[in-house]
Amino acid sequence: MATSKSTPIIALDPSCWTGGGLSAALPARNLRLRPLAKSDADKLSELGDDPDIAKQMAESTYRFPPESPRAFAFGIERIRDNALMGVIQLRRAEANDEGEITLWLGRAFWGKGFATEVLRRLARFAFQGLGLGEISARVMPANAASARVFSKAGFTEWGTVAYGPGGAYPARLFKLARGDWETRHAARPLVLVAAVALVDADGRVLVARRPEGKDMAGLWEFPGGKVGAGEMPEAALIRELAEELSLDVRDSCLAAVACASHDYDEFHLLMPLFACRVWKGAPAAREGQELRWVMPARLSDLAMPPADAPLVSLLRDLL
Fold first, then answer.
1. Quick check: 275 and 199 in contact, CB under 8 A?
2. Could you give the 3-state DSSP secondary structure of residue 252?
3. Are 194 and 272 in contact (CB under 8 A)?
4. Each residue's pLDDT tens digit in the chain (319 positions)?
């Protein structure tokens, strides 16, 4: 199937750029959902000028819904580099509390877990933010990958429905009810992670960039790691700093300064942050991470996980 820039597969309807009037972004672990802007048009046309994306849709032309309090169109943006990856839409039904989702990602972002993360974040917005009772999606029969994504995000398949102009296309129907989502959301694990702000003689703070292949790859964070069962946060930090950075730190050199409590869609993170100015050894990246010493005032310039970002302003006041 040949395409050209004059007849893109993804046709942009300029009447919906405000995303249903929503101005705030919805952050997740690796990405954020944000209202679309007119400046996104060229990039989205470039991403969507792909025959395989057209095959995933019930129609060859994919348009955003018109601007409306019942229609939300979000650009999917990667936090690490602000790359625009695709679009997810939520259309609310006129007469009830139901909504329908449509999602597409550019080819370069397939198979990396982004689609599942996007769906979980939008489901939370639909149920907690909008108070909907049910959300659904229609998947083309040949699109097995999308069907797996909806199943991983908690949706249940409800059979086949007609889709497209005049009901010309069959589609697999997936649904997620609010009660089922609330049950899954309440069962999320609580993850305890200890982190440390290592401060050198010049007042700089050490941050590490998560390597490729790990969750939240490319994001900068304070060194640390998960606290094991029965382990104290200080002991976990001492262990992690030795394993990851070849540093020898004593318990008495760690001072608790803040705590982050962040509600991710897959787990709830509780992260005490310690400050440390005395240690033995020179930091060495032993797990493929990039290390950087940064002045506290410049920490906000770095792309960080949503849980780490609020700690930056606290450190600026303390250091």
1. yes
2. helix
3. yes
4. 333 333 333 344 433 444 444 557 899 999 999 998 888 988 988 888 887 776 665 443 344 444 566 788 899 999 999 999 999 999 998 778 999 999 999 999 999 999 999 999 999 999 999 999 999 999 988 889 999 999 999 999 999 988 766 667 789 999 999 999 999 999 999 999 999 999 999 999 999 999 998 889 999 999 999 999 999 999 999 999 999 999 999 999 999 999 999 999 999 999 999 999 999 999 999 999 999 999 999 999 999 999 988 888 888 877 7
CB 295, CB 203: distance < 8 Å: yes
- Give the number of other CB atoms < 10 A from CB of residue 250: 12
Residue 274: which of 256, 289, 286 has the closest Cα? 256
CA–CA distances in Å: residue 301 to residues 29, 212, 220, 309: 18, 20, 10, 10
Whole-number Å distance between alpha carbons of 269 and 266: 10
**Nearest 10 degrees: CA dihedral of 254, 259, 263, 268?**
40
Of 166, 64, 76, the residue nearest 119 (C-alpha): 76
Whether the Cβ atoms of residue 140 and residue 56 lie closer than 8 Å to each other: yes
Cβ of 51: how many Cβ atoms within 10 Å? 11
Whether pTM > 0.70 for this model: the answer is yes
First to last CA, the chain: 59
Rounded-to-10 torsion of CA 21, 38, 45, 67: 30
